Structures are given as C-alpha cells and as structure tokens.
C-alpha cells in the first residue's frame, strides 16, 4: 500500500470564512483569539487579515484568501487533463518519468499558446519547481518505482485469450458435470526455491550506511516445487525436484507428509518427471473414468507430451491449459499462494541460518524449510481467493475489467480471422475486431476540449491529441507467421491427434538431421577414408579410441575397390555371411553416393528389417591406419539397401599399444 498523502496545511480557509471572522472582530468587538478559535483559524493568520482590513476597508472578497494560483501556468482543469494522461500511460505500462513529464508540460503550453517563463524556452521543458508543485496539487499522482514486466506478459493478457480460456472451461464443466464441484477442479504449477534466501528486515543502528545479513551463497542451488491445489481450498502433498542425478530418500527429510521426491541434474521439471507427478496426482485424487477430475496448468513444454495425454485420458483427468504468459492473472497459485509461500520460506531459511551460524545451507535442508512454510501459506482462504480472483471457480466472465486489459491495448490490431495463418477461432459472444477498434478509438482520441465551470470548449489541446497513447506499429507481413499459443483442452481427441503428428514430425526431422550429419562427415572425411582396393585384402583393427588397452581389439578383413565400374564381391560359397540379414553388434559395410564405403557397427534396429541405427568408425593414420570409434560417437540411421555386406566375425589379435 502506498503512503497516505499529507493533509494540506495552508490555504484551507475560504475567503468567506476569513471575511466573517474579520467582521466578527471589527464589528462585533470579538477578540482575535476568540474569533480565530470559533472559525478554526490560526491566531497569527487572522491577525494579519484584520490589520489588512483596517488599512483598506474596501478590500474585495477575493483579497481575503491567499491566491496561490497567481503564478500557475495551467488551470486546474488543464492539469487534470495532464494527470489523466499520465495515469493512463502508467496503467499501460509505459509510464512517464519526471523529466519526460516536464517536456510534455512545455509542449502542451506551446501547443495551447500559454505564456511560460523564459527558462522553459531555454531548457525546452518545465522547471523543477513547477514539477514539485504539480505533484502537490495532483494528489493521485506520485513518483513510484515500477516492477519490470515482459512484453509477452503485457500483451498476451487480452480479452481474446481470456475469453477463449473461459469458453474452454465452460465447455468442460457442461460436458462433465462431475467436475463442476470445486472438489474436482485442481490447479498445478511449479515454483523455484533456492538455498540462498532473501533476508527479512532486522533491527540495526540508526544511520548505518550498510547493514548485512548472512546467506549461504551468492546464487545457491535451485529446487523446483510442484504444487497442486483444489478450488475447495485443499492441497495435495507437493513434489520436489532436486538438482541431482539420482533421488535419495533423505532429501525429503522434514517435507510435508506424502511429498514426492524427484531428481534432475538441472533441478527443473521435465516431461519424464511430469509423468510421475501425474501418477502422484491420480493417487491422491482417486481420479478415474467414473470419477473424473479437471486439472488446469500452463503450456510449459514439460506439461504437454503424448505420454501425459494418454495417461490422463486413461484415468479420467481432463487437462485444460491456461493462455500463454497469463499466469500472473489467471493461475490461482500465482495469484494468492506462492507470494505468501516465498515469504514464509525466506523466514524459515533465515531462522535456520540463525540456529546454525557459520554453516551454509544445502539442498538437504530445503525440504525442512518447505515443510515449515507450506502449511502456513497453503491455507483454504488463500487457495479459494486465488480461484475466485482468477474467475475459474466460481466461473466469472466479468472478473476482469477494461482497466485490466489496458496493457494489451498497446499492441491491439484488427485480426483477420479468415486468414490461413490464424489457427484459432474467436471465443463465442466476443467480437474481436469490435473490441480492438474500440480500444484503438479510445487510445487515439483527439477530443480537443477543456472543462471550464461545467462547460467544454474547443480551445485547449490535451496531451493525447498531439502525442497520443503508446501504440505499436503494424506487423510486417513478408515473413512466415509463427504458430500462436492458446488455451487448449489437450485431453480432447483433436489435440491428441495434433500431438501425435507433432511427435512424428519431430522424429522425422531427427532422422533427417542424422542423415545430413552423416553426409557432411562423409564429405569431410573423404580424404581419410579411402575406397577398398580390388587386388588385395587389408586388415583393419577396430577399437575404442578412449581405450589405452587393446585386449579387445578386433581385426576384420575388408576388400577395397580402386575403380568406379569394377568392384570386388566376395565369393558366396567362401563368405556366405556377407549377404545375411544384419544383426545387432555386427560390423557392416555401408555404401554412400559415388560408390564410397564406410565401416559401421549396428547398434539397434529402428524399423524391423528395413532401417538400422549404426555407429561409424573412422580411419586413424597415427595408429597404423586402423579404424577406431571416435570419442564423440558418429551415429546415423541407414536403410537396409545401403548396407551392402555383413563383415565376418572379427578375429582376436595380440595385445598391442599404438
């Protein structure tokens, strides 16, 4: 909450009150102190005006009160126009600094032919003294330190995205009446806690230039906490992701009862770990096809996978995703729970540091601090308030006002819903172009009017008329539009089929990338890997390049071709295995374009009998011209027709160091 503005101490007595008090002294023979007490006027002030009236009995009524507006540049109505413009710009997240406000005041004075001091013309801006008194007169404006907010968050929270999410929510509630009860509506979200806390305020000596508080490290280790709450005000035991390769049970010492422990080297949630979180959710909610649930969370990549959707459909979990970059307004956990949780967690860590001086906090004490802070923040009142404030439960379409969408009005543009690049439909009962045009007209208003005694005149030019509100330029249309994010019911069949197609496309791109890498390596290593020669056979040693011991070295006999037309083929009777079906761990000869051959080892079978994953060997001149596996495996997928021969089983050789 901001500070309450100080009450004005000067100029609070009107001219009529002062005149009545003076007449009481001069005509009714009241004492100055008695009259001042009766009208609640300071004795010295009334004495000054009594003396003034005695010297000049014909003084007008206007002279009985101080005229603070004698040197004002703008009238009260004009300053109100300027104040409204400044306030609206700040609500649009494009606030004006004091320096920019002074320039704006000078420009407004020049546009309206208002006389200003000469110093304004020299500096091309209003003076510091004017700025100071302007802030005193405009009680609803003060100098504030804004919080940084990304452009994505500001522009994504708009009427269209919110309306689409509420349409999807209403569709689920009507289609599955069992989840309409608040007990079956859940929200899931992750937040990060670290071993380095934010210290609380402490008592210290007045006037100290710097006050420090001990923390464990500069940055600390990140632990992800995944929380799940219901619209009825209850919560499920959280899941903690520790920055380790393997999870150990002692990491959860002190955590809330029933908590799930997970491990990942980065400490972040992944698609594989999220499957375990979903199992955790199903276990505690008893979700099934006969007892379905509604789970609401964001569009993070780890939350949306084909495996997640299939498991959710199997156990009756209906998943609804929030619009992208809107969690600060529409995620119940973000709205009212995680804020208090972070405060209580910092307090718990601070208390632990005081109890253990000189010992840095590690990830093994995080669960204890989470267990202390979690029940204090995850109260029914906080959880229910989050669902209500976001309009999810009870369902409330009017929870957000036009003022809440002012941030997005900066980039409002009419959208052509018939364009093939737009892959979504407008929410029902919502005219997107109408909403956009309404905002544009409001922001681009050029109503040159001024309030004067209840009447309006066309003489004054307000700031929005010559400067306008912040507005983004039109988009470039010569580039391919990217797919727009949106709220989705990912457990519905259309979204599931879209995920299947996405998985297939991703797998196809991976294979293409492997083949492309293989061709690039073939072109780069053409000079080193020579063609097999026709006249004689040559022995090659295959071994791991990382191994210094060659006990497991193998020798294979390979014939090389020296011409472009005639190739040596093995005798089928002598070498029958050359033409057999490749098997795992076989050494094979793979043919590339231009009749170039490479030795490879079969790793796995991708498509039964048609496609294999192989690891290529590389010729090493420093080791006697033998073939070795490179330090970084050279993996690729090859077709069956590209594998010309299966090389004979390698013969063991003597232990020899190269």
Automatic annotation (TrEMBL):
Residues 224-387 form the DDE-1 domain. It is found in: Nucleus. GO terms for cellular component: nucleus. Pfam families: DDE_1. SUPFAM superfamilies: Homeodomain-like. One of its GO terms (molecular function) is DNA binding. Residues 419-554 are annotated as: Disordered. Residues 428-437, 444-458, 493-510, 520-530 have a biased composition (Basic and acidic residues). Gene3D superfamilies: Ribonuclease H-like superfamily/Ribonuclease H. InterPro entries: CenT-Element_Derived, DDE_SF_endonuclease_dom, Homeodomain-like_sf, RNaseH_sf. Its main location: nucleus. Residues 473-487 have a biased composition (Basic residues). This is DDE-1 domain-containing protein. It comes from Ignelater luminosus. The lineage of its organism: Eukaryota, Metazoa, Ecdysozoa, Arthropoda, Hexapoda.
């Amino acid at each position: 909450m901001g500070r309450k503005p100080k009450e004005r101490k000067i100029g609070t007595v009107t001219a009529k009150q002062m005149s009545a008090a003076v007449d009481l002294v001069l005509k009714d023979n009241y004492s100055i102190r008695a009259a001042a007490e009766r009208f609640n006027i300071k004795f010295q002030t009334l004495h000054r005006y009594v003396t003034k009236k005695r010297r000049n009995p014909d003084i007008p009524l206007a002279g009985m009160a101080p005229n603070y507006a004698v040197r004002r540049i703008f009238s009260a109505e004009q300053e109100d126009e300027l104040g409204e413009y400044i306030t609206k710009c700040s609500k649009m997240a494009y606030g004006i600094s004091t320096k920019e406000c002074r320039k704006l005041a000078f420009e407004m004075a020049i546009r309206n032919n208002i006389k200003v001091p000469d110093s304004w013309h020299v500096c091309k801006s209003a003076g510091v003294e004017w700025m100071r008194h302007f802030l005193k007169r405009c009680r609803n404006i003060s100098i504030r330190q804004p919080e940084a907010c990304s452009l994505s968050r500001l522009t994504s929270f708009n009427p269209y995205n919110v309306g689409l999410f509420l349409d999807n929510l209403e569709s689920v509630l009507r289609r599955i009446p069992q989840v309409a009860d608040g007990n079956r509506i859940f929200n899931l979200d992750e937040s990060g806690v670290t071993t380095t806390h934010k210290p609380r305020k402490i008592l210290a000596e007045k006037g100290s230039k710097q006050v420090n508080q001990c923390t464990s490290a500069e940055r600390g280790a990140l632990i992800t906490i995944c929380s799940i709450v219901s619209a009825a005000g209850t919560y499920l035991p959280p899941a903690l992701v520790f920055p380790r390769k393997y999870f150990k049970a002692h990491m959860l010492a002190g955590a809330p009862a029933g908590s799930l422990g997970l491990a990942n080297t980065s400490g972040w949630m992944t698609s594989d770990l999220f499957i375990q979180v979903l199992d955790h959710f199903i276990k505690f909610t008893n979700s099934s096809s006969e007892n379905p649930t509604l789970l609401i969370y964001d569009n993070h990549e780890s939350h949306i996978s084909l495996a997640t959707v299939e498991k959710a459909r199997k156990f009756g979990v209906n998943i609804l995703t929030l619009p992208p970059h809107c969690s600060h307004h529409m995620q119940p956990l973000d709205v009212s729970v995680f804020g208090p949780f972070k405060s209580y967690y910092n307090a718990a860590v601070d208390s632990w540091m005081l109890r253990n001086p000189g010992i840095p906090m590690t990830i093994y004490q995080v669960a204890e601090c989470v267990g202390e802070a979690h029940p204090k923040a995850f109260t029914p009142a906080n959880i229910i308030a989050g669902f209500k404030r976001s309009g999810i439960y009870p369902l409330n379409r009017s929870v957000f006002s036009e003022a809440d969408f002012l941030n997005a009005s900066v980039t409002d543009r009419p959208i052509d819903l018939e364009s093939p690049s737009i892959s979504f439909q407008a929410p029902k009962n919502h005219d997107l172009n109408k909403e956009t045009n309404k905002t544009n007209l409001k922001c681009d208003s050029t109503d040159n009017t001024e309030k004067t005694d209840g009447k309006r005149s066309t003489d004054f030019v307000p700031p929005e008329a010559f400067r306008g509100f912040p507005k983004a330029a039109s988009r470039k249309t010569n580039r391919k539009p990217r797919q727009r994010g949106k709220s989705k019911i990912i457990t519905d069949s259309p979204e599931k089929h879209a995920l299947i197609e996405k998985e297939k496309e991703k797998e196809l791109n991976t294979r293409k990338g492997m083949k492309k890498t293989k061709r690039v390596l073939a072109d780069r290593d053409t000079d080193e890997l020579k063609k097999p020669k026709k006249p004689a056979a040559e022995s090659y040693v295959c071994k791991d390049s990382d191994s210094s011991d060659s006990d497991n070295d193998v020798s294979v006999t390979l014939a090389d071709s020296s011409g472009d037309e005639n190739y040596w083929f093995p005798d089928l009777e002598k070498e029958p295995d050359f033409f057999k079906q490749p098997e795992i761990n076989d050494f094979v000869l793979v043919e590339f374009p231009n009749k170039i051959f490479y030795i490879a080892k079969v790793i796995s079978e991708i498509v039964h009998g048609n496609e294999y994953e192989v690891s290529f060997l590389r010729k090493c001149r420093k080791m006697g011209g033998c073939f070795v596996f490179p330090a970084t495996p050279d993996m690729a997928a090859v077709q069956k027709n590209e594998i010309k021969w299966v090389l004979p089983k390698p013969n063991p050789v003597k232990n020899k160091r190269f």
